[in-house]
Amino acid sequence: MPARAHVAELAPSLRPLRILWDRLRRGDEIAHVVTLIFASTVVGITALLVYQLWIQSALSRQKFGWAFFATRVWDPVAGQFGALPFLYGTLLTSAIALLLAVPLGLGTAIFLSEFPLARFSDAFAFLVDLLAAVPSVIYGLLGIFVLAPWLRVSVEPVLSSRLGFLPLFRGPAFGVGFLAAGLILAVMVVPFIVSVSREVLISVPREQREAALAVGATRWEMISRVVVPFAKTGIIGSVFLALARALGETMAVTMVIGNDPKISASLFAPGYSIAAVIANEFTEATGNLYLSALIELGLVLFLVTFVLNGLARLLVLATAQRGSIQG
Amino acid sequence: MKKIAGQNWAILAVLVAGLFLVSCSHNAGTTTGSQTVLINGAGSTFGYPIYSRWADDFHKLHPNVEINYQSVGSGAGIRQLLAGTVDFGASDAPMTDAQLAQSKSPVLHFPTVLGAVVPTYNIPGISAELKFTSQALAGVFLGKITKWNDPAIARANSGLKLPSATIVVIHRSDGSGTSFIWTDYLSKVSVDWKNTVGSGTSVNWPVGLGGKGSEGVTGLIQQTPNSIGYVELTYAIQNHILFGALQNSSGEFVKASLESVTAAAASAADSMPKDFRVSITNAPGKDAYPIASFTWLLVPTTIPDVAKRDDIKKFLHWMLAEGQNDAEPLAYAKLPTDVTAKEDASISEIH
Q: CB–CB of A3/A22 below 8 Å?
């Protein structure tokens, strides 16, 4: 208040300056500007990334147009490039990974957040976090030398004899392929789901739980009807963090996916992913069109992540609204 | 206020440290007062072990010359050379005419050592060295020969009982000079291959699984019964990997060895073009191993910096003479003397 009075005494022309100075002195303005700079830097980097991908892929975009998304051929010798097999491989392996990792991760998170011994829960969560710190090349090596032989000898023959009527489980078992890549990805993304979901579940207010128990809910009813719905937004967020990781994973996937740009219904068949082909072919890509096509694949991967993230936001919005109507 | 002052000091300290780092890296990038010459090269990963050995040895002989070689891959090496960010490039495949046309000054190719690619396989119960005809190999990689006991394979291996198992083809998934040499050979021996696949560091493989790097291919072969793939001779020798013999253009079955690779280069030396851009796969000669290739240093003809130019020329002369002795201990085949003599003469084109 004294500052206001002080301002009023000044000449009218100097008043805005004085106000600015006062606001600066209080620190709000500085904090505002500094955080604005940081935030716009992050947005700027993303924009620059897209801009560069867009510019550098010009040659390929002009030559192939939208057909790039529908072409199955990837032939560097003939200069024919299409993204479809890579798009398919990326989406399929990520879908397998989420299908396995979401129940596993969510179950673990619920157990850890509701388990009475906090110390045990923390130690367990620490171990799960360690999974996220393992370098992806290690996962890839385990994939080649442990997972793939096990799939080829023990899992895939059983699956094809029991469930062979489904096209998903037909064909020769190589060990490496969509299934191996999906399994490795599932293990890699589980810690993201567990870690984030556990924090969200723990932060559900005590009153909510107590209220549920007070009206006679069992422990499981409390968890499934009160705690999980309350934390839904955060849990969906963790799933999409995991999805983003799965879509972009390079090293482990290329080591176990088989690296064959074909579209097969069978999960045993070898395939390819966008990130894997970029990593494999970028260093030796000679010729401008070839390079440009690889960069356009990067743009496609960005687009896929962008679209899926957008869908996630819509899903969160939709469920949040429904929640409020019920409430 | 005190706190803010403290922050200012921190910012100042960061700035000073940054400036210090910038000035340091600036010094390293140019020739400093004590006439240290820094030569930057980049390219082929295949040549990396011997190029870094040469850089060390040459530095010991000429302490003022430092050669810094980055193994970024042949394609990236060519791109960096064209962009002018390195003094020389290195590649497992010669530059194409289109690439040469992009260069500001003409680029010379200097073969440095030889590499070869060998077929390797994993057939349960067979530990003998298989013999492959060119038609058998092309048929397998085209997906037309699908069983190990196919007559095309069995005929050349009459003493062995090959299983009727399905062949699993394994190739490199990363773009590599190894794949280039392999597909270059298949293009020469099979019209079918040439028309449907062709040659390149990455191709549209008709069949098979891809492994990343030599270690990825070897890993997949070890894990997959009845598989066949290919690796560099160097890699096979160093890791004691079983590999087969190939029928050369004279009809002889030759197992890859440092000598049979040098023999392939010697038999191709007579028809060597002036710019050394030559493929020596399927070379003539009884002792020649058919899937061999030079690997090249790419040097621009115009180097404006006099000190740098003289040292690069000195290095090339040394590499073709004493440097060749480093080849065999590192499992590379050395150049035949006909070739080194011709190369030595072309060093004078750098000005």
A: yes
Contacts of B93 in chain A (CB under 8 A): 286
Query: What are the E-state strand segments in chain A?
Result: 74-75, 80-81
10-residue mean pLDDT profile of chain B (351 residues): values are 46 49 44 74 91 95 94 89 94 90 93 95 93 96 96 93 94 92 96 95 94 91 94 91 94 94 88 90 92 95 92 95 93 92 92 86
| CB within 8 Å: B174 and A149 | no
Asked if A283 and B199 come within 8 Å (Cβ–Cβ), the reply is: no
- Can you tell me the distance from the alpha carbon of A45 to that of A47, in angstroms, rounded to the nearest whole number? 5
The CA distances from residue B73 to A56, A71, A281, B78, B279, in Å, are: 20, 28, 10, 9, 19
CA distance B214 to A45: 36
Query: Residue A229 has which token pair?
Result: 């719905």
Among A59, A150, A284, A291, the residue to mutate for chain B (most B Cβ within 10 A) = A284
Q: Classify residue A311 as exposed, middle or buried by CB count within 10 Å of its CB (0-12, 13-18, 19+).
A: exposed
Q: Are A202 and A124 in contact (CB under 8 A)?
A: no
Nearest CA to B300 out of B351, B244, B227, B235 is that of: B351
Report the relative pairing of strands B168-172 and B209-211 from DSSP bridges. parallel
User: Structure pTM?
Assistant: 0.84
d(CA B85, CA B40): 8
Model ipTM value: 0.81
Do A286 and B210 make contact, defined as CB atoms within 8 angstroms? no
